[in-house]
Write a structure and sequence with these properties.
Blueprint (H helix, E strand, L loop, with lengths): L14 H8 L3 H12 L10 H32 L1
Length: 80
Amino acid sequence: MNDPRKYNHPARGTRAWKLKYNERSSVERVNGYLKGNYQLDNTRFYRPSHAIAFYHLIQLTYNARNFANQRVTRATKEKK
């Protein structure tokens, strides 16, 4: 029970890390992307309701951007 190696995560860039990374769900990938690119882990609000609203606005922005990209891609493929 006191083995510290039992719960350690594999080092980034190793084969074990890549296998674990590929097992992530799409929700985990989106949340990781939002934390990295939209500074979602740096909330500036003390009230939980404000932080939740901020999170939802960022998710809405992300979804709208991806939806627009899909529409543009589909339109350019249809033109060819």
